[in-house]
Amino acid sequence: MTGHCAVLLAALALAGALGTGWVAQGWRADAALAQLRQEHTSVLTDIATKTQAAAEAVRAYERQTALALAAADKKST
């Protein structure tokens, strides 16, 4: 009977160790995923800021072009 108890205790200890390792890896994976999400958010914010600045530059160029065309039109008519 002692051999069976020893095997059972060893199996329980192994199962506990595997369960603990599983939980610890889950925590690490969650932390890594949170870090990746933070980096992703930062990159997307940077892209949005640069896209907005580029769009505003295009609008300013279009306004200047329209003013120049209006001035040339006024001068020639």
Account of the protein in words:
The protein has 77 residues and is mainly α. The chain contains one helix and no strands. The model has no long low-confidence stretch (mean pLDDT 94).
Give a quick rundown of the structure.
The chain has one helix at residues 2-76.
Give descriptors for this structure.
single chain; 77 residues; mainly alpha; 97% helix
Layout of secondary structure:
Layout: H1 2-76
> What Rg, in angstroms, do the CA atoms define?
33 Å
Which stretches of 5+ consecutive residues score pLDDT under 50? none
Number of helices: 1
Order of helices and strands: H
Largest sheet: none
End-to-end separation in angstroms reads 112 Å
Strand content: under 5%
